[in-house]
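Exam revision sheet. Question 4 asks you to relate a sequence to its structure. Input first:
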Amino acid sequence: MTAVTPDLQPGTTGGPGRPVPAVPVEVHFDDLDALGMLHNARYPVLVERAWTALWNARGLAFDGDWNAAGDFCNAVRELTVSYEAPVLRPGTYAVHLWIERLGNTGLTYGFRFCSADGATTYARGTRVLVRLDPGTLRPTPWSERFRASARDLLPRD
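Answer key, structure tokens:
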């Protein structure tokens, strides 16, 4: 489901010298807007699907029970997307994923939405998540299991 790409150019991912996962995503005809371009609101949805596939491949999954969701009980605090080129047709694309910062209760991840071969960047951005306690909806620390699974997505020291 996920592949690891070779090191990409500095600035195209979370940093040079670090391979990043590339998760395939499908753009469908109904994802396109009236101008025939991938609708701007679909990029975050496709990135979310890529993250879900990555975590599922690592044995971390959400089964629908918020009280048992653990690290999947989180909320978006901030989302930034820079659109660099339009996606003009349905097909298979890729999303490169990395974590820029993993704090006690929050994390910032980066993404690059690109062609399946990685040659063309269509969008890039970041998203800040905060892990929540399902009972209080207050910030709570990430689990050690999650931290261990995320270490290789962090920048190298």
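Marking note for examiners. The beta strands are 3-4, 21-27, 74-83, 91-102, 106-115, 121-131.
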